[in-house]
């Protein structure tokens, strides 16, 4: 039975092949079979995680909480120089110049990415907006969020900062960010479940030395990462505590 | 329009729960909460600061060295009723999450409003301390809190 690797569905489409190379790289280094399962739905992925179908996960910080506190996963590493930040943007033609000018009844374009949505909603609180007094449009990805702003179908949109920055120059020139979060300590994390216990040492070693290996460097580049950094148990608990203060 | 608008300043005695007190210079001027930031601090189980992020350092007006090891009541504003903090401590000591609006005193005597969430840090079943994360509050919540706290003084 191969172990199962999965990746939070918020990865950029350009990096899909990178995750397949990563899986191949890990199997060669560890000498064990690993199956990569990708999802386009956060909900479906979470369901499979709960059913024990996942042993190794590149998790978004929100799911990290469930994996660590409920399912006994351990954080092995975090991506170097890569924190998760949220951008709230409007169409370049919008009259709105600050979050506080948004009115009840506004149409919000968002995705089912739990981190971005949670942070975005927190940043709307200063305008007294919450899910009870805005109209939510949950879309498949950030390109669709951008399109709904450009077409005037939504007043305001939430983006993962990296997703926003990766949109084409043309699309970005038609939008205007109102606010961009600067949290700095919330990030994705590579988590291993109990089935990985016996390989944990080797896996950590493999991750941390990836940058020193020419093949590893190529794989990282394709994943859009510059390297991995070790994460202590306390670093992980701290991040999860922080997220717990942000969710209801 | 060259009116000299000097911000009113007053000296006020702040009395803490443990019986200690200090006289602080209070300046009635609000410093706006920085957009997009979270102010994060952690304390030990008695409320002494063990961690402060950069946004906390910047907004409080103290240096990180001054904050680490200080009692978190270093931010206590005299316009905050004691009962608000009793509610905070009663809640987190039960192991639950506390949320509320707080007017904080900066080192220079000015103030800033936050929406704060405090949670206990449980490690291997043991209480190790507390984490507080603050976000930007809405104007209407600040007004409501001002009115409510004035009745609780
Ligand atoms: C994690 C944590 C964060 C706190 N943050 C604040 C704060 O930002 N401002 C504040 O006045 N009190 C804060 N408190 C409450 C103080 O510990 C203290 O109870 C309060 O300032 C009133 O002072 P006193 O209890 O000494 O009278 C915090 C407590 C904890 C546990």
What does this structure look like?
- The complex is a heterodimer of chains A (248) and B (153).
- Chain A has 248 residues and is α/β, with parallel strands linked by helices.
- A six-stranded mixed β-sheet of chain A has the order 2-1-3-10-4-11, with helices on both faces.
- With 153 residues, chain B is an alpha+beta fold.
- Chain B has four helices and seven strands.
- The model of chain B has no long low-confidence stretch (mean pLDDT 94).
- Chains A and B meet through helix 10 of A and strand 6, strand 7 and helix 4 of B.
- The complex binds flavin mononucleotide.
- Flavin mononucleotide (FMN) binds next to strand 3, helix 3, strand 5 and strand 7 of chain B.
- Flavin mononucleotide binds next to strand 3, helix 3, strand 5 and strand 7 of chain B.
For the record, give the distance between the C-alpha atoms at the N and C termini of chain B, rounded to a whole number: 37 Å
CATH superfamily of the largest domain in chain A: Periplasmic binding protein-like II
Low-confidence sequence ranges of chain B: none
Number of domains as seen in the coordinates of chain B: 1
Strand order of the largest sheet of chain B: 4-3-7-6-5
Order of helices and strands of chain A: EHEHEHEEEHEHEHHEEHHEH
- The assigned CATH architecture of chain B is 2-Layer Sandwich
- Strand proportion of chain B, as a percent range, falls in 35-45%
Radius of gyration of chain B: 16 Å
What does the average pLDDT of chain A come to?
94
Q: First CA to last CA of chain A: what distance? A: 38 Å
Question: What is the string of SSEs of chain B from the N terminus onward?
Answer: EEEEHHHEEEH
Kindly state the percentage of residues in helix of chain B: 10-25%
Give the averaged pLDDT of chain B, no decimals.
Answer: 94
Classify the secondary structure makeup of chain A into a structural class: alpha/beta
